[in-house]
């Protein structure tokens, strides 16, 4: 079978190389019809579109592939068909997906000012890729410039200079008052850039840990001016140990638990965190000390306020003269807290009540426990909505409500905690005996992401396990200290962890799929729900919440100020109930098995009727939940186009000719509407006539073997239903759509078309067979009547219309069961 696939790829590649584009297209149409080659066919159609100067074909095929394959290849290829801000947006997404890829980095750098990005990557370049990045370094840092970093027991680096310089650059290493010239190991001409790159490598085995190594290059670029010393990027290098430091302990643990808070920046968040810990002292019987470590913070006001707390005896505050990063700071703190159980607590968290007593109980409920992680709004496996699905930050009052509910709902034996694959460092309780066995965090990992996973995997290899505390909630904002650097550091460290622990990723995903935390989350949220005033949960007073075909559409609906509860059919036999007030919450039910629980929750919310947004949803709901009343769902209001972007209403005398080249038309319609014969005929006609008009359905057809998908003119880009938030947002704002074609007037369809038109004012194409009464409230400023779907391929002239007068139409009918 692999030989067949290889032959397919070689055959298509050869045809494109020979510019036999029509033959290649025919071959790829066949590939679309085979599920085994569908993704490969989409990729090659994108390549074909780029080579044959058919950008709309490339954008359509690659836009579909973006939602099938999570890597950056399709995104980066699609960016090549765009320019300006659109291209930059796609290159940004490609870099977000694969920040360690040289090609995605180079393409992203070419889009604009990214000096800080170059600094982050300066230690990652190799001789065979240096020519790709040298011009960027010369532009932003001038020549000579370079980078230095620690590699095991060696000090490695590179330095760029002008090829016309008579001598090689002079580098000096300074440490502890001593200076030495750095020998250059390799001279590499970069002919295409008129630059040379010089590599160096110095063995420094035995260098004192934490010593600062400064590397400078003589800058003689400006004549008649004294020679200046220019630090290389990464200088000074703080020399790191090569293994996790030992954490000493005694036979008996220290009486007080150490709450260790690394501090860098985030003034308000850090003070709120410390205050919440101090305020919880009275609610906990477990003695604890608060240890804050200032990692050379750039915010003097923050450190001043912390110093006042330390002077008053409320906390212990330690200062580091040089920034050591999260790992170095934590290891410093673990040394200060040796012999104690220690809680690693991020500075952007909030705690409540007897949180520490409950974490302590979970840590000693099972003899081989190494760590405990509480539930959180943003806690990886222990996130409240779903594993690895963060929610917005919680206020202190919201945290109190959830934490009290967790304590009350999960207080029975066997319910307080659950075994999880790995802990999460936002709030990680580490037992003193496990610390003595494993030592501290691994200093060879990069800057604060994945180091707690490494510690947990080491403990697991030594027979320890990790618990998730289901009776504790800790609020976590996330991203205060590291910002958008996180993705790069995660990727770099995950590559290391995958080599060290080959089975770890499989175990993590097994835990993610099994989701053993779900019963505890559900008990917590159900208890919490029953404690809330109805007005706090349903401030809008909407009588009949809407039921949507997908969770993505329900989540989108919840962003509207008038919507606080939405339901979605989230699986073949699943229904999800979600709310946005006073913060995000969610329940998922398997039907009909959990019908009683759903009915009870709806009764708690005083919900006695629902409004399905499609006819098929109404039929399904009537079969699985016959006790609920179904009501009509009103169509959404038309998007309000700002005055500066307003689209003039076309005159009845004007003529609109559907564009015939380079046109992307989004298709809004429910799956059953995508199966109509006329649409299949339109797709076949567009492909046969080789018109550059491509249809992009926002939903998948109900029939997976639909001829639409094999036509080469229809590509599903599931913006309506996909929960791939980054890519949905990217295409919503930057995929160059020309219009949206309506296939039906069901409320979900109109909502999709309305949402799609928010970022890009799109003309709506409305076939004559659709009832204009149902469109009364939904039509935008620019819309066009089509005599038939086939008129898009026939170049027929159609007369644009203005929205029907409201007073002449009756109320828009909704979808009924």
Question: How would you portray this structure in words?
Answer:
The chain is an alpha/beta fold. The chain folds into 5 domains: 2-109, Tetratricopeptide repeat domain (Serine Threonine Protein Phosphatase 5, Tetratricopeptide repeat, Alpha Horseshoe), CATH 1.25.40; 116-238, Immunoglobulin-like, CATH 2.60.40.10; 257-519, Spore Coat Polysaccharide Biosynthesis Protein SpsA, Chain A (Alpha-Beta Complex); 538-630, no CATH class; 643-808, Rossmann fold. 35% of the residues lie in helices and 19% in strands. The chain has 27 helices and 31 strands. Helix 3 runs antiparallel to helix 4, helix 5 (73-79) packs antiparallel against helix 6 and helix 10 runs parallel beside helix 11.
Count of domains: 5
Low-confidence stretches: 638-656, 796-817
The CATH class name of the largest domain reads Alpha Beta
What is the CATH architecture annotation of the largest domain?
Answer: Alpha-Beta Complex
CATH superfamily of the largest domain: Spore Coat Polysaccharide Biosynthesis Protein SpsA, Chain A
> What's the main sheet like?
8 strands, mixed
Overall average residue pLDDT: 88
Shape: flat
How many whole angstroms does the radius of gyration measure? Answer: 30 Å
Q: How do the strands line up in the largest sheet? A: 12-11-10-13-17-15-18-16
Level of helix content? 25-40%
Number of helices: 27
Beginning-to-end CA distance, first to last residue: 47 Å
* Broad structural category: alpha/beta
Number of strands: 31
Q: Kindly report the CATH topology of the largest domain.
A: Spore Coat Polysaccharide Biosynthesis Protein SpsA, Chain A
Strand content: 15-25%
């Amino acid at each position: 079978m692999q030989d067949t696939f290889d032959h397919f790829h070689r055959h298509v590649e050869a045809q494109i190389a020979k510019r036999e584009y029509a033959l290649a297209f025919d071959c790829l149409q066949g590939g679309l019809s085979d599920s085994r080659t569908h993704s490969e066919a989409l990729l090659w159609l994108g390549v074909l579109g780029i080579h044959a100067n058919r950008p709309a074909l490339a954008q359509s095929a690659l836009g579909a592939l973006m939602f099938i394959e999570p890597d950056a290849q399709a995104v980066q290829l699609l960016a090549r068909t765009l320019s300006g801000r659109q291209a930059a947006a796609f290159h940004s997404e490609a870099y977000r997906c694969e920040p360690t890829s040289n090609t995605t980095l180079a393409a992203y750098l070419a889009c604009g000012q990214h000096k800080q990005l170059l600094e982050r990557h300066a230690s990652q370049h190799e001789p065979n890729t240096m020519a790709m990045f040298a011009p960027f370094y010369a532009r932003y840092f001038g020549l000579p410039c370079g980078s230095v970093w620690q590699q095991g027991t060696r000090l490695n680096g590179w330095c760029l200079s002008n090829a016309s310089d008579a001598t090689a650059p002079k580098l000096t290493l300074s440490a502890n008052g001593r200076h030495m010239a750095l020998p250059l190991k390799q001279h590499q001409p970069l002919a295409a850039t008129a630059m040379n790159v010089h590599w160096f490598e110095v063995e420094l085995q035995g260098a004192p840990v934490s010593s600062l190594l400064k590397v400078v290059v003589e800058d003689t670029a400006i004549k008649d001016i004294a020679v200046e010393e220019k630090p290389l990027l990464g200088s000074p290098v703080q020399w790191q140990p090569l293994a996790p430091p030992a954490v000493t302990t005694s036979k008996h643990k220290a009486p007080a638990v150490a709450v260790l808070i690394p501090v860098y920046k985030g003034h308000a968040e850090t003070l709120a965190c410390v205050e919440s810990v101090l305020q919880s002292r009275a609610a906990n019987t477990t003695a604890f000390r608060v240890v804050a470590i200032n990692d050379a913070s750039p915010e003097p006001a923050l450190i001043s306020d912390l110093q006042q707390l330390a002077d008053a005896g409320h906390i212990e505050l330690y200062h580091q003269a040089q920034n050591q990063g999260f790992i170095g700071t934590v290891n410093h703190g673990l040394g200060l807290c040796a012999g104690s159980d220690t809680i690693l607590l991020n500075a952007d968290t909030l705690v409540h009540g007897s949180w520490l007593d409950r974490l302590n109980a979970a840590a000693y409920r099972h003899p081989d426990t190494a760590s405990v992680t509480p539930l959180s709004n943003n806690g990886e496996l222990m996130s409240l909505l779903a594993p690895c699905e963060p929610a917005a930050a919680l206020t202190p009052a919201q945290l109190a409500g959830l934490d009290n509910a967790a304590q009350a709902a999960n207080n029975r034996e066997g319910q307080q905690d659950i075994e999880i694959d790995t802990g999460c460092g936002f709030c990680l309780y580490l037992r003193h005996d496990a610390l003595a066995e494993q030592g501290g965090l691994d200093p060879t990992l990069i800057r604060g992401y994945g180091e707690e996973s490494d510690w947990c995997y080491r403990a697991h290899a030594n027979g320890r396990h990790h618990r998730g505390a289901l009776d504790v909630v800790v609020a976590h904002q996330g991203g205060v200290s590291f910002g958008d650097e996180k993705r790069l550091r995660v990727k770099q460290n995950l590559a290391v962890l995958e080599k060290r622990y080959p089975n770890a990723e499989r175990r993590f995903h097994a835990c993610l799929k099994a989701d053993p935390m779900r019963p505890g989350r559900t008990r917590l949220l159900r208890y919490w729900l029953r404690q809330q005033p109805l007005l706090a949960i349903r401030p809008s007073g909407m009588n009949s919440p809407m039921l949507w075909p997908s969770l993505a559409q329900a989540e989108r609906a919840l962003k509207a100020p008038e919507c606080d509860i939405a339901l979605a059919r989230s699986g073949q036999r699943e229904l999800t109930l979600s709310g946005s007030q006073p913060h995000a919450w969610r329940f998922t039910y398997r039907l009909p098995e959990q019908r009683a629980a759903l009915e009870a929750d709806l009764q708690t919310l005083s919900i006695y009727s629902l409004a399905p947004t499609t006819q098929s949803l109404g039929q399904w709901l009537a079969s699985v939940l016959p006790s609920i009343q179904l009501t009509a769902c009103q169509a959404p209001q038309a998007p309000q186009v700002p005055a500066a972007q307003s689209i003039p209403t076309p005159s009845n005398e004007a003529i609109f000719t559907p564009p015939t080249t380079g046109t992307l038309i989004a298709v809004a319609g429910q799956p059953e509407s995508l199966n109509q014969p006329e649409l299949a005929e339109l797709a076949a006609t567009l492909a046969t006539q080789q018109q550059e008009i491509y249809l992009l359905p926002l939903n998948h057809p109900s029939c997976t073997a639909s001829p639409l998908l094999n036509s080469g003119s229809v590509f599903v880009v599931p913006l309506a239903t996909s929960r791939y938030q980054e890519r949905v947002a990217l295409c919503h704002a930057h995929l160059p759509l020309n219009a949206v074609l309506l296939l039906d007037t069901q409320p979900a369809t109109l909502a999709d078309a309305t949402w799609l038109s928010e970022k890009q004012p799109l003309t709506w194409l409305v076939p004559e067979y659709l009832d204009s009464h149902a469109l009364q409230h939904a039509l935008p400023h620019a819309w066009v009547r089509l005599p038939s779907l086939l008129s898009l391929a026939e170049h027929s002239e159609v007369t644009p219309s203005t929205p029907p007068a409201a007073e002449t139409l009756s109320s828009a009918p909704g979808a009924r069961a």
